Amino acid sequence: MKKCALVTGGSRGIGRAVCIRLAGMGYHVIVNYVSNDAEAQKTLDLIREAGSDGELLKFDVSDNAAAVSAIEGWQDANPDTYIEVLVNNAGIRKDNLMLWMEQEDWTKVIGTSLNAFYNVTRPVLKPMLVRKYGRIINMASLSGLKGLPGQCNYSAAKGGLIAATKALAQEVGRKGVTVNAVAPGFVKTDMVEGLDEAELKKTIPMNRFGEPEEVAALVGFLASKEASYITGECISINGGLYS
Ligand code: NAP
Predict the structure, then answer these.
(1) Which of 27, 82, 154, 229 is catalytic?
(2) 17-67 pLDDT, tens per residue?
(3) Which of 19, 24, 179, 230 is deepest in the core (most CB within 10 A)?
(4) Helices (H) and strands (E) in the chain, counts
(5) How far is the CA of 224 from the centre of ligand 1 (A)?
(6) Is the pLDDT of residue 243 over 70?
């Protein structure tokens, strides 16, 4: 049976590094993204360079109907296998102080991180339970643990994701499905473009931003069979910024 993994937001940044890591572990990687066809194709090329194969599955994770239809369509086309690793990684930032935050920036950020957890996890979950094996890893953030000013929307989305991780872990542990979250600090991707790295790194004990590959290594471990007794956890990866 072909071993399959789905990574949301796999076209760039941390998601891309996770795709390559899972490819190296022998997974057929389904790369989800929303708009950037060229970067998604580049991820697929890198998956092939890593010695595995994969496919693109473009849909908006914040759109329930689109997510359900894409995932059910994939399952119908692949009746002999199932998605045994799900990495809920897609996410966006729309920072502003609460006083000036538009409703749209609140709902979009919650939609892409928190509603997406529901939209994508639900259709993927049943086959995992039936086969009694699965790994779900949710990309949270330091912001969801600590709360960061200017990020009420993002902190709420990521905090909610951490709580949902803990709840779902208790629902499905008996069925061999683990559910964990990863909480990065500052990681060098398009998302942190425009931040003052030279200034911010002074606040980080390791005196640097993280690399997407460092986060991917942790996700790869949580996705592996070796991580079989870890569930309901949120693991920080932030160079000592906060723990
Ligand atoms: P990034 O470089 O901006 O990449 C974001 C990815 O998410 C892209 O692949 C993008 O697809 C996809 N995406 C955005 N909205 C989507 C939607 N509605 N449906 C499907 N895919 C969508 O971000 P990143 O830094 O790698 O962040 C990845 C995750 O880590 C996010 O959840 C983020 O909140 C979290 N995180 C990042 C940092 C950091 O410092 N970078 C720190 C803590 C947590 P397109 O290419 O099609 O736009």
Answers:
(1) 154
(2) 999 999 999 999 999 999 999 999 999 999 999 999 999 999 999 999 999
(3) 19
(4) 9, 7
(5) 23
(6) no
